[in-house]
Write a structure and sequence with these properties.
Length: 245
């Protein structure tokens, strides 16, 4: 088995409803925001961690292929021989990896290397400029309250402050995908291409869910936009000018 191609997928994410991906805040300020977004420590510009993107895409892939029960709600791994695994589950771990979870004693599992690496998503310069011109900040503050159902009054300690990246902002990210090849195994090679095409469709699922915190309350809706809507990827290695989708 060897790497046949390394493919690069370039996308942007347009924020449709305010986006909150939480970051640590060790400093407590009087009147400060309760739940802040994660930011670049050098520029203070919000970003979307690649781990958040990969985790969300994998979660959606597992739900839409009926594999959630395989891991009892957790990101699963394949025990024993991979050939004994359900085909949907095998494709998921082929794309996203099959490392053994920390603390698990069972060594009877097949290790499958992940095909995909997803970068952090960074706010575009145009969005940075627009937000600073219009708001003087890269974020907005949303207030949320919980209501006591019997009294009809605010409960739970009063309003909560949620920091969000406003609607209209755009982020860009890259995914690098390795396609493997076996010279004497046509079925394996066909499954590799099928898995890659499935991964492209899993990215599209972000259009129908939400990223980050509070998605059930309307936060985090995004729109996936391909850098090239016709050719959804380019071949990064071996070097070629060919694009395909």
């Amino acid at each position: 088995m060897q790497i046949k191609e390394i493919r690069k997928i370039e996308c942007s994410l347009k924020v449709i409803t305010g986006l909150h991906i939480g970051g640590g805040n060790d400093e407590i300020k009087i009147g400060g925001v309760d739940n802040v977004v994660i930011r670049d420590p050098l520029t203070s510009i919000p970003y979307i961690p690649g781990s958040s993107l990969k985790g969300k895409i994998r979660s959606l892939a597992e739900w839409t292929t009926g594999c959630v029960d395989t891991g009892e709600g957790n990101a699963f791994y394949i025990k024993g021989k991979a050939s004994d695994a359900p085909s949907n589950a095998l494709q998921i771990v082929k794309i996203f990896g099959n490392g053994k979870p920390d603390g698990l004693e069972d060594d009877n599992h097949t290790v499958l290397q992940t095909r995909v690496a997803i970068s952090d998503a960074f706010m575009t310069p145009e969005s940075q400029k627009l937000l600073l011109e219009k708001l003087g900040s890269y974020t907005e503050t949303k207030y949320e309250v919980s209501i006591n159902r019997l009294q009809g009054k605010v409960g739970g300690g009063g309003p909560r402050q949620i920091e969000r990246v406003p609607a209209g902002a755009e982020f860009t990210f890259e995914a690098i995908y390795k396609v493997f090849h076996k010279s004497d195994d046509a079925a394996f090679n066909s499954a590799e291409e099928t898995a890659f095409q499935s991964f492209l469709e899993y990215i599209e699922l972000l259009n129908h869910d939400g990223l980050g915190g509070g998605s059930s309350r309307g936060n985090g809706r995004v729109e996936v936009q391909w850098a090239d809507s016709q050719a959804r990827y380019s071949v990064a290695w071996p070097k070629t000018d060919q694009k395909d989708g």
